[in-house]
Each structure stands twice: as C-alpha cells, then as structure tokens.
Amino acid sequence: MDTRQPSPARIADLANALANAEKRYRARHPNSASRHAYAAAHMPGGNTRTVLHYSPFPLTWAGGKGNRLTDVDGLEYLDLLGEYSAGLYGHSDPIVHAAVRAALDAGLALGGPNLYEARLAEAIRARFASMDLVRFTNSGTEANLLALSTARALRPGRPRVMAFDGAYHGGVFQFRHGGSQLNVPFDWLIGEYNEIEATRALLRAHARTLGAVIVEPMLGGRCIAGTAEFLTMLRAECSAHDIILVFDEVMTSRLGPAGVQGLLGIAPDLTTLGKYLGGGAPFGAFGGRRVIMERFDPARPDSLNHAGTFNNNVLSMAAGLAGLTQVFTPAAANRINALGDRLRDRLNHMAHARAARFEATGRGSLVGLRFGNGPADRAQSRASGDESDAQRQLEALFHLDMLERGYYFGRRGYVALSLPTTEADCDGFSDAVDDFLWTHRTLIDSIR
Q: Which candidate in 275, 408, 414, 434 is catalytic?
C-alpha cells in the first residue's frame, strides 16, 4: 500500500487554498454567519443535528422549491443533498403538499386511528414482499431500535447483535470512527462489510449467542454497495442458525421499486424504513415475517408493547401515502436511479480521463464522492474515518468550491438525487466537478 504523505509544500498549498475558500465563503454569506452566531447562544455549537454542521459555519436556508434551495443571503443552489435521502420528492411536490393540506384541515393529534395509517401500511407491504405486517415509528433510528429489541426479545439467551464496521443505523447506532459513546449498550459483535469468509466464520463462531444481524444493503456513510454474494451469505447463515436478519433499508429502499432486497431477491426477516417515506415529515417503520410481527398484536396474551405518541401522526401518514402511491411509482424509482447510475459513470469516466485520485461510489440515486486511491468496495479505509487530514481538507475545499458554483451536497461527499433532478442538472454538476479536478489537479494528485 502506498503510504507516502503529501510534501510539506503541498500541505501548505492545500491549507492556503482552503483558507482562501473559507474567506470567500464568509464574505458571500454574512446572514448565515449571523444566524449561526445567534443559534450558538441557544444550542451547543448552534446545532441540533451534528451532520448538518461544517466549517466555517453551515448555510441557513430560507426556503426551497423543486430541487432548488435559497439561503438567507438570497443565493440559490441545486440541491444534491436531498436531505440525506429523505428529500426524495423535492421541496414542493404538489401531490404531497395537497395531502398535507388536507390532513391539516381535518385536524391534528387526533388521539386514535386515522384514515391514513392502514392504507400506508398496505402500500408498503405491496412494495416490500418480505414485510407481512408493518408498524410505524418516528424515525429510522427508532425503527432500528424496535427491530433489534424485538429480535432480542424473541431470542432469549442470545442477546448479541452483529453490526458492521463503518455502518450507521441512526443516532444511537453509529459504527463509524470506532463507534460512539452514545450507542445503545447492546452486546455488539462487529464484522467487516463485504468480507464473506471472515464474516461467515465470525457468524458460525458466535451463532449460539447471536440473536440478530443488522446490515445496510449499502453503507450510507460513503455509499459502499453491499455485494450480492455478501448479502446472500448473510441470509443463508442467519437461516441456518436461526438468527434474525434485519435489513436497514432506511436509505436504500429508494434504490429500486422494492428497495435493494427487491433488486437482489433477498428476503430479510425484518426490514426497517424511514427518510423519504414520510413525504418530508418525520417517519420510521419496521416490519417483516408474520410470525415475528404478530407479537405486537395487543390482543395476544404474550404481546409486545410498542408505544409512541406520534407513530401514526396524520401529517406523516398522509404525506407518506400520497408520495409512495402517486409520486414515487416504480417507473419514477427506475428513472431516478438510472439517472444516478449515469451520473456516477460520467464522474468516474472523467476522473479516469484526468488520472485524478477521485471516485464516485454507491448505487442508483445515492452517490458518494471521494478523493484518494480506490476502489471503494470495503468499509475499512473508506467509511470508518481513516481519511488523512489532507483528504479531509481536500473534501472541505471541494465542498466549498461547489457551494460557490451553486451545488449543495454533504461535506463528506454525499449526494442523494431528488425526483425533480434532470439530466441537465447532472450535466452541469459533472462539468463543475471536472473543472475542479483540472484546476486543483496538483493538490489532488498529492493525496494518498
């Protein structure tokens, strides 16, 4: 492996380029700077969602329409972040908006079953064949917590849960950067993503204590797609050892009409959902095999209790139902994911043509952008926080440069296309990236 570091001169050049980019950013965004200073007086770091922070301060949004955002300084951007995949419908879909208005007009916080929840559950079951029954939560994090707690309850004496290095299953299930002090204190067994033989051996060695395996069909942090062989092996081993297999499709359910499990023909025991399926409102869901989910039937003497004041709130249920049944049709899913594949292919072709140390990863409409050596088919050096300081500085420079050009995506290089995105939008972004690769080719070439 090439372990060379950039020369001191290149490090200084990169630091200077980043400092100049931050200076221009501050000058262009005085109102965002003021708002951030105000927020910092009332919230730690001026922030209540860590991923939205980036230096020198994050933009504050005044509004959005379609796939465009306008900041409080009046500048407009093509939204390529898509609210970290939750904003699939864009900011002003008329069908979703009409559903939300109707729900508002009929009254909020009704305190009982409403007209939407069963219909949304039916629509989800129609898409995801592995989900015999469904229950709703308020976030993907909560859905994963309920799914894993269910697995542990149904496998007494087997409390251990396998997760994978580099994975993220919500705010209390973070396995990037060596994990988080805020993680739920389950008995975790950590495997290596996409490593078939090592994971198979680990599963077999600990099968007697494992109640569940949870896996993202694509690691969301750096958009590393799970191979069909790896995910199929997990299904086979979990079946052989009576371990409950949980597919976290909170992000990846949008990668096909029936998620990645539909694309690969793999049926997990439980599936967790979230993000866009609330139509822009808070949402989560978990569901799966009938024999598991029936334990939540309150009429059973051995029922599992599942509370949550806003589990069936009318805004999420109404917006989610309209979005899934009328907007994110199978045809729409295929179109936006094909567009993402073409964007990824074009970016990688450009990088290859320029011999640039840059790659686009992922699947369908979710794209990861990364500087350094590839390919990124494993989690260890791509998703677990092993980037060098120089790589992180280059990522920051790239992010600020693209913001200056009018393109908004995640600082770590995360792109999630929304349904209003067009081929022309992707062409413009590709041209901007190509210009960055050429303009900063010397700095990029020094990154290992």
A: 275
